[in-house]
Amino acid sequence: MIWWLEDIEASGYNKYVVIKMTNFINWEIGETTYSQWGYIVGPGISAISDTIESSSTVPLYRENQNLYKVIMPYAADLKIESYTEIKTIDTITPFIVTDLDVHSTPGVMYVTIDPTFIHDKSKEPVQTDKDDPEDFFWLNGGK
């Protein structure tokens, strides 16, 4: 992905940098899984920062640097509450989408993700006539 640097210390033609997509992410959207490369920025890292200043030079908007963010190509199916487990070398961290920005840069999504608990993705048990109703007592609302 190519990134345009608006404020750069060096002058001249060096205003573009290439962001290497670091993770292949499998987003769970309902019953389907959507896969996409993304660049993940952890909390406290200022690789993504943006400030809108008024004429009084007081920032009107500043990004929260305590959140995890993903920069990725636009994905129409990705929604708030989508779930993913991001794998690193020795750990799996589950995340849920809490915010999306698809308007700032055409073709690019900025996704805010928060750590969550690992979701149980097993199918809900189905009671048959052969099952003892006591086995499904709590699944049937305690009835």
Characterise the protein shown here.
The structure is a single chain. The chain is mainly β and 143 residues long. The protein has a domain of 97 residues: Thrombin, subunit H. Helix content is 0%, strand content 41%. The strands form 3 sheets. A 6-stranded antiparallel beta barrel has the order 3-4-7-10-9-8. It has a two-stranded antiparallel ribbon with strand order 1-2. A two-stranded antiparallel ribbon has the order 5-6. It is elongated, with a radius of gyration of 21 Å. The relative contact order is 0.16. The model has no long low-confidence stretch (mean pLDDT 75).
In short:
With 143 residues, the protein is an all-beta fold. The protein has strands at residues 2-4, 16-18, 23-29, 32-41, 51-53, 59-62, 68-73, 83-87, 92-101, 108-115. The chain has a domain at 21-117: Thrombin, subunit H, CATH 2.40.10.
What key attributes describe this structure?
10 strands; 6-stranded antiparallel β-barrel; 0% helix; 41% strand; Thrombin, subunit H; mainly beta; single chain; elongated; 143 residues
Shape: elongated
The portion of residues assigned to helices is under 10%
**Percentage beta strand:** 35-45%
CATH topology descriptor of the domain at 21-117: Thrombin, subunit H
What topology does this entry show?
Elements (H helix, E strand, L loop, with lengths): L1 E3 L11 E3 L4 E7 L2 E10 L9 E3 L5 E4 L5 E6 L9 E5 L4 E10 L6 E8 L28
Antiparallel strand pairs: 1-2, 3-4, 3-8, 4-7, 5-6, 7-10, 8-9, 9-10
